[in-house]
From TrEMBL:
Residues 331-381 form the HNH nuclease domain. Residues 387-408 have a biased composition (Polar residues). Belongs to the Rv1128c/1148c/1588c/1702c/1945/3466 family. Keywords: Endonuclease, Hydrolase, Nuclease. Gene3D superfamilies: 1.10.30.50. It holds the Pfam family HNH. The keyword Hydrolase applies. Residues 382-408 are annotated as: Disordered. InterPro entries: DUF222, HNH, HNH_nuc. This is HNH endonuclease. The keyword ATP-binding does not apply. GO terms for molecular function: endonuclease activity; nucleic acid binding; zinc ion binding.
Length: 440
């Protein structure tokens, strides 16, 4: 480590020591005072991180220019490196990187407000994102126009103020952005916790209004006809009825509960056939209470099939066969999705989409369980960038970046981790996990 890095590390350690030595607040007023001071300090640190991130990008760009790397191929994967350094996903790393670059190039007053502790990092991201489609000159102008509102306006107020100025300064760019957003319309699914998910559609405003009008009309009809009853005859609320209609319209099911698509649920045998309270795991969503899943599987409208997955008795890790082919067999790929569920790259939140050879096939890597990693498509492409490598085993993954920094995570089925949370060494468990799939 270079001398300046040692000095910086010592300075940070001294600051941490000072913070830990502060006396405990002795009143409500003192608690609020301290919260405010700590928030200001955090914001100032975030300002330093933004400046350092921008400098990191500059260093990398200079290096790659000297290496004669084409401009179109420069800075590949840099957002993931920033995300790793801050313990965040590559997606968040991309937002942090683009914000840092904007703050240090075209938003000097917003950067000053952050480094002085007057505005939050999140609000600086709002400023950067809401002006990203504008020219540098217009971004600098908006930076001046909103400076007096930074740290005083709410997120919604700040976003609308910036949009108003942006539409006034460059109407054509605003209209082009609206059209571009229409081409990027999509439907997303994210976990909401406790057995629920968010299904979100990003679509043009008039289409969204039409969707809600249709759902409202059909909901009113069902309520007026007295057909809004649960399976036990209990009246359903308006939101419950609207949600059921939403599912029925999209899936073509007669009832919302009659799922007609494959849904994989992993349960330990002692839960499925016994009284174990170990939760089930809904692939792509996360844990569900054992009783909830048992009741769902008992529904006569649900078509069920049973599959066995063998595990190591010592720690619950899945075991599987190898293949001579380059492409992972479907059975092994499904086991990989069950094991990793979420992309194995540290802090990535995307679902597993690709079965990847950790040691590349082109370099002699086998198509085997030991050499398999579940990744999302972006991380699978990102690992091929210059200076990046993914190494490890079926039990762990180590990602090494071009700067030589390494990040290691475990790759075990989530249920195995829950089962063995207090076992050292892990206590033996049953040798079979159950994947229960419903099919149309």
């Amino acid at each position: 480590m270079e001398t300046r890095d040692v000095v910086a590390g010592d300075a940070v350690q001294r600051a941490i020591t000072v913070l830990r030595s502060l006396p405990e607040p002795d009143s409500q007023e003192a608690c609020i005072d301290r919260i405010q001071l700590m928030e200001q300090a955090v914001r100032m640190v975030r300002g330093d991180q933004a400046v350092t991130t921008s400098r990191f990008v500059d260093y990398r760009q200079v290096e790659e220019s000297h290496l004669k790397i084409p401009t179109s191929l420069q800075l590949k994967g840099i957002e993931a490196e920033v995300g790793f350094a801050r313990g965040e996903s590559p997606f968040v790393g991309a937002a942090l990187t683009s914000t840092a670059i904007a703050l240090c190039s075209v938003l000097p007053r917003t950067l000053a407000a952050l480094t002085e502790g007057r505005v939050s990092e999140y609000h600086t991201r709002v400023v950067a994102e809401q002006t990203s489609h504008l020219s540098d000159a217009h971004r600098k102008e908006i930076d001046v126009l909103i400076a007096h509102r930074l740290g005083k306006a709410s997120t919604s107020q700040l976003r609308r103020l910036i949009q108003g100025h942006a539409y006034r300064l460059d109407r054509a760019a605003a209209e082009a952005r609206v059209e571009d957003n229409k081409r990027q319309r999509r439907v997303c699914k994210d976990p909401a916790g406790d057995g629920l998910v968010y299904v979100t559609a990003e679509l043009p405003a008039h289409q969204g209004a039409a969707v809600m009008e249709t759902l409202t009309r059909l909901t009113n009809q069902r309520l007026d006809q007295g057909q809004a009853l649960d399976t036990d005859g209990t009246p359903l609320g308006r939101d419950e009825v609207m949600t059921d209609i939403f599912v029925e319209l999209l899936t073509g099911q007669t009832t919302a509960d009659g799922v007609a698509a494959e849904v994989v649920v992993v349960m330990h045998d002692t839960t499925l056939f016994g009284a174990d309270e170990l939760p089930a795991w809904l692939l792509g969503e996360g844990p569900l209470p054992a009783g909830t899943v048992k009741n769902w599987l008992a529904d006569p409208n649900v078509t069920k099939s049973l599959r066995r997955l063998y595990t190591r008795p010592s720690d619950g890790q899945l075991v599987a066969m190898d293949s001579k082919r380059r492409r992972f067999p479907e059975g092994m790929a499904k086991m990989l999705r069950i094991r990793d569920d979420t992309c194995a790259t540290p802090w990535c939140n995307s679902p597993v989409q690709d079965a990847d050879h950790r040691h590349p096939w082109a370099k002699g890597g086998p198509t085997s369980w030991e050499n398999a990693t579940g990744l999302c498509k972006r991380c699978n492409r990102r690992k091929e960038n210059r200076g990046s490598s993914y190494t490890g085993s079926s039990d762990e993954l180590t990602v090494t970046t071009p700067t030589g920094h390494s990040y290691t995570v475990e790759t075990r089925p989530p249920l195995a981790e829950i089962k063995h949370w207090n076992s050292d060494p892990p206590a033996p468990v049953g040798a079979i996990d159950i994947a229960w799939a419903t099919a149309a």
